[in-house]
Structures are given as C-alpha cells and as structure tokens.
Design a protein that fits this description.
The chain is α/β, with parallel strands linked by helices. It has three domains: about 40 residues, no CATH class; about 110 residues, Response regulator (Rossmann fold), CATH 3.40.50.2300; about 140 residues, Rossmann fold (3-Layer(aba) Sandwich), CATH 3.40.50. It has 13 helices and twelve strands. The strands form two sheets. Strands 2-1-3-4-5-11 form a six-stranded parallel sheet, with helices on both faces. Helix 1 packs across helix 2 and helix 8 packs parallel to helix 9. It is elongated and about 75 Å long. The chain starts with 5 loop residues before the first helix and ends with a helix.
Length: about 325
C-alpha cells in the first residue's frame, strides 16, 4: 500500500496543497480550526511529514535523532555524549531526547523528530507499544539503529555482548573462592536481563551451584535495599553480580551502613563500568562495555548507511571485558 502524500491529506481535509504545507510549517496564517482539520486528516491517513529524503540528497549534514530510554543513568548519558560528539565531527547535529522508559512519550518524540526532518535515528528503546514507535519510522523510510536493547525486528540492532559479560563476572567470583553467588537487579522477563543472567547461570550450572536471582529495578535504591536483605535474610551469600553499576553502587552503600566490608566479607561485581565505578571506595569491579567506543561505532555505522545505502548487519555484539577492583579483589 502506497504511503499517503500531501495531496491525499489535502483531498481528505478539503483544502489546498499549499494550506497543508503551511500547516506542516506551523504557519500562523492558517486558522486554528483549519489546522486542526488538517492534523486530524494526517492522523487518519497515517501521513508522516518527512524531510529525510531531502537531507539525504543534500551535501550538507542534517539532523540525526538520538532517543534514549533513561538519561538519568550515566551509562546511557556516556553513550549519548559519545554519539553526539562523533556526529558533530562529521557535520551532523544530534537531536537528543530522554523518554524516561515511557513508550507513549517515546512514540510522541519519534513522531515529532520525523516531522522535523531527521535524516536517521539511533534509539535505545523503552519497552512497550512497539508499533507506535517503529511503525511510523518504517513507513517514513528512515534509517534506524536500535542500540543497547532490542524491541523490534524491523531495524538493525547492536549491543555489547551481555551474555559473555555475565559469564566473565561469574567466573571471576568463583575463581576468587566465592561459593554462593547471587545475581541482583534487572526487571524480570526483559531480554537485556535474560542475556546477563544466561552467562551467570551457565557458569554456576557447570560448577554444580544453584543460582540465586533477586530481580528488581536497576537503581541505587534497589541495590541498597538488596544489601540490607542479604544481611538480614541470606547472610551466607558471599558474592553478587549486579545487573548494572547503579545497583552495585547502591549495594556498596547498603553494606557500608551495616558494617559488612565489601571485598572481604562480600565480593561484588557490577556491569557497564561507568565512570563512577572507578571513583568510589572501594572501587567497584565491573564488566566493561566500552560505551564511548561503542557510541562512536554506532554513529559511524549510521552515517555509512546514510552515505552509501549499506544497511548494517541485523544484529551485532561488541566485545566486553572484566575490570577487577577492590570490591571483588579486596584491599591491595
């Protein structure tokens, strides 16, 4: 089925093509009731205003949308900054938006970005309402990269190898002599949680150990609560892998409050290796995802897609490594 055009919108609204154009430009010359009529016709037809094709034909850089699920999390902030700087170096401007894990806000944000003519889009998506976000992008023919999380099969995806990270963390803790290793944080049922869990569970299974999973929001507050729970309910647990560094930082605080020494009484490994992991005391061991290099790589892949038409691979996993610090090694 052909995509609706500006002419189709004009016919449905009973106005001229030039009137529709003025509405798209937010011109004050159009009466409010006429503007509302045109907007309703656009919504009914599924029309999407798109300057991307013109941007692609231009020799100058254009706008790139960058939609992030949680910019409060330093991991995503580091990624967004890296992408924005890499795009700027090539003459492109990044339009950055935080969706705060709200799929409705995400769909609204994407629609506005399409209307304002982004040439392409990088998205770390919120979960839910997939078609509301990705349907308009597909109809508009805009190149889209999903990063760090995958919620749609319509566009390419790239992320660090989370499963390998879970495996490295578990192997590290067992090699240090830990025998009761928990996995803390991460929303149950989400792929990004399942991948990190898979590596952990595989290593424990081979060692003949029983996994202990404590799901929860990937926040410092949950990590602090988890540390208190271990002290009160499961004092025999001697190590944990955290879904992300925020959970790990929260656990450091929770154990400190209870007088349990991390690195001696309890070994801890985070995930993502944000800057704070190396700045706290004791330093938080973490799975290093190379988020700065990853951001540059994603910007490069998207710009190559724009300039050559070469669509990236459907799925890409980038290497991870373990950075061991005092939270698992103890005082040195």
């Amino acid at each position: 089925m052909a995509r609706p055009t500006i002419i189709d919108v004009a016919a449905a609204a009973g106005v001229s093509k030039s009137t529709v154009s003025l509405v798209l430009q937010n011109s004050p010359a159009v009466k409010l009731e006429t503007r509302a009529l045109v907007r309703r016709s656009m919504a009914d037809l599924g029309y999407v205003y798109n300057r991307a094709a013109a941007n692609l034909r231009s020799s100058q850089g254009g706008l790139i949308g960058l939609v992030i699920n949680d910019l409060r999390n330093p991991f995503f902030t580091e990624f967004a900054t890296s992408v924005q700087m890499a795009l700027s170096a090539k003459g492109y401007a990044a339009v950055v938006a935080n969706t705060d894990e709200d799929p409705g806000l995400q769909a609204q944000t994407v629609a506005v970005m399409i209307e304002h003519g982004v040439s392409a889009l990088i998205i770390s998506p919120a979960y839910g309402a997939e078609d509301a976000t990705f349907g308009p992008l597909e109809r508009a023919g805009i190149p889209v990269l999903q990063v760090l999380r995958r919620v749609s099969d319509r566009f390419p995806f790239a992320a660090p190898d989370y499963e390998v990270g879970g495996r490295l963390a578990a192997q590290h803790l067992l090699a240090l002599g830990s025998r009761t290793v928990a996995f803390v944080g991460g929303v149950d049922g989400r792929a990004v949680t399942a991948e990190r869990l898979a590596g952990y569970e595989a290593v424990l299974g081979r060692a003949g150990l029983v996994p202990l999973v404590l799901p929860g929001r990937p926040t410092r507050a949950f990590g602090r609560e988890a540390a208190e729970w271990f002290c009160d309910q499961r004092p025999e647990v001697d190590a944990a892998i955290c879904f992300n560094d925020l959970v790990g930082l929260g656990m450091l605080s929770g154990f400190a409050e209870r007088g349990r020494v991390v690195g001696r009484d309890f070994r801890l490994v985070g995930f993502d290796d944000i800057e704070d992991a190396g700045q706290v005391f004791p330093g938080l061991s973490s799975i290093h995802c190379g988020v700065e290099a990853f951001g540059k790589q994603m910007a490069g892949a998207l710009l190559d897609w724009l300039s050559t038409g070469t669509r990236p691979a459907d799925a890409l996993r980038t290497p991870v490594s373990l950075v061991a610090r005092a939270s698992s090694l103890g005082a040195t």
